Amino acid sequence: MIYLDNSATTQPFEAVIDEMDRCMRETYYNVSAAYAPAMMAEKEITRVRNRFLQTVGLPRGRAVMTGGGSESDNLAIMGLAETLHSPGSFLVSPMEHPAVLETLNRVQRLGHTVRFLPVSADGRVNISEALNLVDRDTVMILCMHVNNETGAVQPLRELFRGAKEINPRIVTFSDGVQGYLRVPMNMQDSGTDLYSVSAHKIHGPKGVGALASRTEIRLSPQVTGGGQEAGLRSGTLNSPGIRGFGKAIEQCENEHAAERLFLLKQHLVEALSGQEGIFFNGPDPLSRVESAPHILSVRFDGVRGEVMRNALEARGILVSTGSACGSHKQKVSAALRAMGLSTEQADGTIRISIGLMNSMEEMEKAAEAMIEQAQLLRQFRRR
Ligand SMILES: Cc1ncc(COP(=O)(O)O)c(C=O)c1O
């Protein structure tokens, strides 16, 4: 099996599994307890927290450990909205994950307005037009780091810094679930106040995530109870999960994740480039600035993405037609539509997402299968 759906989830590193196993067997204590072994266990959690903050360029920030990317997104958005005393305006890119867009629906029900940022044909937010929408009423500007369907890296620095120049009170939030450790993030430099991540996208465990934030950003907790995580997220800490997350960070750094993923993607792109009826959606897939090193959105002329996905699966290659969470819903992808693709073009698209377990040979096999299947299925359609 060649697994190329790493944006949906990744296979955990062996070292992650070992770390979690050890934690569950040996240091299973409730880290809030007052005896020495629990305090030792807590130190390990603090170590992960600090390492995470280092990797996002906010060493003196706050890291709230959560139950995954969706929960981190909810905490950032609803957590901020609930602290506001008067109606405000939220500006958001239309290509966000449902964890962001659905939460904004709830924000609207609190009386706030939501407006969408304009997107260019390459799937990146159009900065000059976007900044025209920023005004005194804007309370939050939201834009994902990397789009989960096209791999487009969003121009966060220009957007967030530009917005703060117009209105310094704006809070900026980026969903970093697809970008974290694959595209550099420096929250301080880019003017990002809140950044959400998920462990299972970086070969860590499922059900673990984090929200990094500048300490002065006030948030209202979304899970209340015993007051863990400085009152921002109650519940006994998932110590094995957090330790597994920490190990995944360490491994990604040791393995130079971004560089390795780029080389794999480059191999695949070169094999597919120039083939009849095969196109790439989004920015130049080999641009190190505009395109993430692990996601490739491929469009086939005259072949439906769903048909291609099934044909590839029959050959042992797993890809997706959209983001995993949306792929059961038969609707046109928000990201591809925002970029101006026709329904037919969006329908003819598959998403390939590469992980650190993939090899160069797998890239060759996948490209070969796609080229062969595209020719075959196109002929079949013409008859
Ligand atoms: C951009 C983005 N945000 C949020 C999520 C949700 O993350 P989680 O599965 O950890 O809740 C995903 C998952 O696919 C995603 O791609």
Can you tell me about this structure?
With 383 residues, this protein is an alpha/beta fold. The protein contains 13 helices and twelve strands. The strands form three sheets. A seven-stranded mixed beta sheet has the order 2-8-7-6-5-3-4, sandwiched between helices. A three-stranded antiparallel beta sheet has the order 9-10-12. α10 crosses α13. The radius of gyration is 21 Å and the shape is globular. The model has no long low-confidence stretch (mean pLDDT 96). Bound molecules: pyridoxal-5'-phosphate (PLP). The site of pyridoxal-5'-phosphate (PLP) has 17 residues, from α3.
The rounded Rg comes to 21 Å
Q: Widest sheet: strand order?
A: 2-8-7-6-5-3-4
CATH names the topology of the largest domain as Aspartate Aminotransferase, domain 2
| Count of individual domains | 2
- CATH uppermost class of the largest domain: Alpha Beta
Q: What is the 3D form?
A: globular
Question: What's the mean pLDDT score?
Answer: 96
Spell out which ligands are present. Answer: pyridoxal-5'-phosphate
Going by CATH, the architecture of the largest domain would be 3-Layer(aba) Sandwich
Summary tags:
383 residues; alpha/beta; Aspartate Aminotransferase, domain 1; Aspartate Aminotransferase, domain 2; seven-stranded mixed β-sheet; three-stranded antiparallel β-sheet; binds pyridoxal-5'-phosphate
